[in-house]
From TrEMBL:
Gene3D superfamilies: Mannose-Binding Protein A, subunit A. The gene is LOC108559335. This is C-type lectin 37Db-like. Residues 55-180 form the C-type lectin domain. Residues 1-44 form the signal peptide.
Length: 183
């Protein structure tokens, strides 16, 4: 005897599950268990995870699982088919830092590498385009300072709770980083 199982699922969020449920006529308990497994597998794979942000025509990946140097962060983003972060507008700075603030807890020295590098001390350009970093109001007061003559890489720094600023930092310092889609 056939048993039809009706399960209410938001089709907009999980269209594949809905499709499978609607087309299955369950004949025995093993089929029902298979259905539950299918549902749990699909539910555990959302479209974007907590570290992904989309704004305008870019997708951003916020890496807070491990800290690394500017160089390794640069290569890691390339491995993902992405670039290290380039912020080219004031609204982009606000949006990406607001997203990070909504996802991470403040801690001392909470920093994120960007793709900014100094062609001369305190003169920052984006590595991928060669264009100058034009976020002059976003530097922490007194930065860039090229401390000890060794700060040639650009980072976002949450220097106090809910406040992000720019800072030049030694490229071998280990910190989190942000990748973005290439465009
Ligand atoms: Ca500095």
């Amino acid at each position: 005897m056939l048993t039809t199982v009706e399960i209410s699922i938001k089709t907009r969020e999980f269209p594949s599950i809905h499709h499978n449920v609607r087309t299955m006529n369950l004949t025995k308990a093993s089929d029902f268990l298979l259905l539950l497994l299918l549902a749990s597998t699909s539910l555990s794979q959302p479209t974007y995870n907590r570290s992904t942000y989309v704004y305008k025509n870019k997708v951003y990946h916020i890496e807070t699982f491990f800290k690394t140097t500017f160089y390794s962060a640069f290569m890691y983003c390339n491995k993902l088919g992405m670039n290290l972060l380039m912020i080219t507008a004031e609204d982009e700075f606000d949006k990406i830092t607001d997203f990070i603030k909504s996802k991470v807890k403040y801690e001392k020295d909470l920093m994120f590498w960007t793709a900014g590098a100094a062609v001369e001390p305190k003169e920052f350009h984006w590595m991928y385009t060669g264009l100058p970093v034009e976020l002059n109001t976003r530097w922490l007061q007194g930065e860039p300072n090229n401390l000890s003559g060794s700060e040639y890489c650009l980072q976002l720094w949450m220097n106090k709770p809910s406040v992000f600023v720019l800072n030049d930092q030694s490229c071998t310092t280990k910190s989190y980083f942000v990748c973005q889609t290439t465009n």
